[in-house]
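Supplementary Methods. Inverse-folding protocol.

Structures were first reduced to a discrete structure-token string of length 862. This string, shown here, constituted the complete conditioning input.
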């Protein structure tokens, strides 16, 4: 009876509070009744300094104790482009020191101003205790960058150059349970009603203070929950014009939940937010809404059930100008600029579009890859940082030739972005769409999906890649992609389709473990290579984005971006759900992200090596080639690599996987020695050769040194023939190999045969006693590594006569569609050299096809 009465009283009180809240909607009184104030001074008042030193006194001006964990203080300043910033707390407390319970985080502002793009937020953990009525807590500390660059303090919003001790300042703000209690926040242009608008949920008005909750993976570490029934979230906003806008709500919910959105001066909308598979995952829903001009409240509610938890909202419109290419003047479309390579043309076509409308056209006279093709480029567009988008454009083509091996050949879209503030648009790409080659008047769609970068700024390019002929583009479209969900760890961020999470049947706990496992792989890469994560990635998390039309499973694009094939994601979730198994693709791509040129003699090898190392050190089960490795009762991943591709090396084909097996498995080298070797290479004070093969040899020698075994031991595990194959390939990566096609050599009575599998698309048949002759010059005499690429239907022997000396090589059966190489080491002279290739006596029946000959200087020691 008492319990029932108590509940009735609580409901009645709650109802009264709710009515009062609705009657005084703009008031923050029910978010918190605490009374607080803050005083501040700068102990360092120099205009230019490598240290910003704000000191605070936080007062409890009320009559009851306040938990320090409910209080936050913000100091606003300009970062001056400095990255890698840290707050150091020198002292916090009053009678006792609570510095260990005091946290300072550096936050980049969404709505920036000329004197504030960043703020320092001071907050306290639960162990900090309380501040008593009439008392205060003092906090002293410093903001510095990792390399101690100088800040300009005179343009900082909260900076006070005249105060020598604590005094009140309305430019430092203080909050209780997320509610502003003192000070004035810097007001940006966006805050005055210019698009895009972004509002954090925790900075709105909530019915009860406990609705504001913490999560380090939410924007600014907070969100608003418990919305629904009697609880509402209200955000004060300024709408620039009465118009239709795109409202995007970023939310958390594992299952489908309904939400109502109402503008206090306008219309109400109902929507259902799809479940994200895990409460922690951040999904989004976008809706076209009609909004009235002026100051208003944006109210989020559900009168009958629990609504999704809200992280933040954005309001945007008209992301890309002139998407139909109809507007322009003087032969140029508005918002799009062209660059044509020599011999190509970029045209604003007046009748080439859909239904004879205007279009953009590109005519290419040669095969040009994505980085060097002719293009139309959009103006820089401001998107929402880390939001997922989908871009499309209609394409029709008249192509006369294209690179058949290139999936991206034809008309496509590219996205240009900066992975961090240290990248530039001219050298770093985001991605390129799959090419469209339809060769008729019908229109096809080129499409990409992507995640906006840290600053939201992107450019789009429309180009003709690796194709000769003309591409027309019309009706460009850009959508917010609300099918994607953000799953976030401490160092990695996944963007995947919501449907693949749900359809895989993976549990919320398994999803958390999935992300945690990848965080551990990143940690292992950092530990192995000695590269500092924050410096290497410039404070950006590795972003893994599920991508449309990716022809392979994974791809490392710019540093901190990885593309993940759409079709692989669901299967990977299922393998993790069933066996806690990871696939090979993403650990390999994460390995790529930790490459640096100083040790990178072969990028694919190092991507795989670091993937193998991280997976082995974490102890993961791995699903690869329809087999589980490391599952109970099965051998570990070492078994896959121990003799991987040995047959390729024996057939003179290069394989980085074979090197992994030899170095990481059969050499019995410790991970500690690998770590020391990586760190030796990463140290810029150590000399590292530029030639890739010399890097390889030095790497092996350093492994021996750190294992305390004779130098040359690891090298001795390779046969001479294997080293020839490796040397040729690594020197080819370095551009140290010269190539001569057979069809350009001297020959008589020999047939030239077309074959698309050959270098240059042709080979020459050497038959009978006829021969093929090459003449070329060398700058210096010495031993050279010579590779002859051939095709043969049977076992053959060739005589290779070099400057009068005959060398005999064996050609195994390869078939007439599979070129194969054979190596020899020979002495060449400075100046003119001759090489004659002919059948050995006794092997003059039939024919052997010669594709090309390649020559590189043989390594003879450092």
């Amino acid at each position: 009876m008492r319990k029932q009465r108590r509940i009735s009283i609580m409901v009645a009180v709650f109802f009264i509070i709710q009515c009062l809240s609705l009657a005084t909607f703009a008031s923050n009184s029910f978010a918190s009744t605490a009374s607080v104030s803050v005083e501040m001074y700068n102990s360092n008042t120099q205009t230019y300094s490598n240290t910003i030193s704000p000191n605070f006194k936080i007062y409890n001006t009320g009559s009851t104790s306040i938990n320090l964990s409910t209080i936050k203080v913000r100091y606003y300043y300009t970062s001056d482009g400095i990255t890698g910033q840290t707050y150091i707390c020198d002292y916090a407390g009053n009678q006792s020191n609570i510095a260990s319970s005091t946290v300072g985080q550096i936050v980049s502002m969404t709505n920036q101003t000329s004197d504030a793009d960043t703020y320092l937020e001071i907050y306290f953990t639960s162990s900090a205790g309380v501040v008593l009525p009439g008392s205060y807590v003092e906090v002293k500390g410093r903001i510095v960058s990792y390399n101690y660059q100088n800040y300009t303090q005179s343009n900082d919003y909260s900076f006070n150059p005249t105060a020598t001790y604590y005094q009140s300042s309305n430019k430092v703000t203080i909050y209780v349970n997320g509610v502003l209690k003192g000070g004035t926040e810097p007001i940006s242009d966006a805050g005055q009603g210019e698009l895009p608008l972004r509002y954090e949920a925790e900075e709105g008005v909530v019915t009860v203070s406990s609705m504001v909750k913490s999560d380090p993976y939410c924007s600014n570490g907070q969100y608003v929950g418990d919305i629904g029934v009697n609880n509402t979230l209200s955000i004060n906003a300024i709408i620039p014009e009465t118009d239709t806008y795109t409202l995007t709500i970023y939310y958390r919910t594992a299952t489908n939940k309904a939400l109502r959105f109402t503008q206090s001066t306008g219309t109400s909308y109902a929507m259902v937010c799809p479940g994200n598979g895990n409460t922690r995952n951040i999904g989004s829903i976008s809706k076209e809404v009609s909004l009235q001009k002026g100051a208003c409240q944006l109210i989020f509610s559900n009168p009958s059930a629990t609504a999704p938890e809200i992280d933040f909202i954005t309001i945007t419109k008209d992301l890309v100008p002139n998407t139909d290419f109809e507007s322009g003047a003087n032969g140029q479309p508005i918002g799009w600029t062209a660059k044509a390579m020599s011999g190509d043309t970029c045209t604003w076509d007046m009748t080439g579009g859909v239904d004879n409308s205007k279009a953009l056209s590109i005519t290419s006279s040669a095969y040009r890859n994505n980085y060097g093709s002719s293009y139309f480029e959009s103006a820089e567009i401001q998107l929402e940082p880390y939001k997922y988008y989908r871009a499309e454009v209609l394409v029709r083509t008249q192509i006369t030739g294209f690179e058949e091996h290139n999936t991206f050949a034809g008309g496509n879209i590219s996205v240009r972005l900066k992975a961090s503030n240290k990248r530039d648009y001219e050298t770093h790409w985001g991605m390129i769409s799959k090419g469209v080659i339809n060769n008729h008047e019908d229109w096809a769609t080129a499409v990409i999906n992507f995640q906006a970068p840290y600053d939201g700024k992107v450019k789009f390019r429309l180009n003709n890649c690796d194709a000769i002929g003309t591409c027309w583009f019309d009706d460009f479209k850009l959508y917010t992609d609300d099918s994607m969900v953000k799953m976030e760890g401490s160092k990695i961020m996944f963007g995947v389709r919501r449907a693949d999470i749900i359809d895989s049947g993976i549990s919320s706990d398994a999803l958390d473990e999935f992300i945690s496992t990848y965080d551990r792989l990143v940690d292992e890469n950092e530990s192995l290579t000695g590269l500092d994560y924050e410096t290497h990635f410039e404070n950006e998390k590795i972003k893994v984005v599920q991508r449309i039309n990716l022809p392979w499973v994974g791809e490392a694009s710019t540093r901190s971006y990885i593309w993940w094939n759409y079709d692989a994601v669901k299967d990977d979730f299922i393998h993790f759900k069933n066996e806690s198994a990871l696939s090979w693709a993403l650990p390999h791509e994460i390995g790529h992200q930790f490459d640096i040129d100083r040790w990178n003699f072969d990028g694919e090898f190092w991507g795989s090596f670091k993937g193998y190392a991280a997976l082995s050190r974490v102890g993961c089960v791995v699903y690869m080639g329809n087999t589980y490795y490391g599952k109970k009762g099965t051998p570990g991943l070492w078994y896959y690599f121990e003799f991987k591709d040995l047959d390729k090396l024996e057939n003179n084909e290069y394989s980085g996987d074979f090197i992994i097996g030899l170095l990481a498995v059969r050499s019995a080298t410790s991970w500690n020695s690998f770590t020391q070797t990586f760190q030796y290479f990463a140290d810029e004070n150590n000399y590292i050769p530029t030639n890739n093969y010399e890097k390889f040899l030095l790497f092996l020698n350093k492994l021996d040194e750190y294992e305390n075994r004779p130098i040359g031991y690891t090298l001795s595990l390779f046969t001479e023939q294997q080293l020839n194959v490796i040397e040729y390939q690594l020197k080819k990566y370095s551009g140290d190999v010269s190539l001569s096609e057979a069809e350009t050599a001297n020959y008589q009575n020999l047939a030239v045969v077309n074959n698309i599998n050959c270098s240059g698309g042709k080979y020459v048949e050497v038959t009978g006693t006829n021969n093929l002759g090459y003449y070329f010059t060398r700058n210096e005499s010495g031993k050279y590594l010579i590779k002859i690429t051939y095709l043969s239907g049977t076992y053959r022997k060739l005589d290779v006569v070099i400057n009068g000396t005959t060398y005999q090589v064996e050609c195994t059966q390869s078939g007439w569609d599979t070129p194969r190489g054979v190596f020899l080491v020979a002495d060449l002279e400075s100046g003119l050299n001759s090489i004659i290739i002919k059948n050995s006596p006794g092997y003059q029946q039939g024919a052997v096809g010669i594709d090309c000959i390649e020559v590189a200087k043989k390594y003879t020691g450092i």
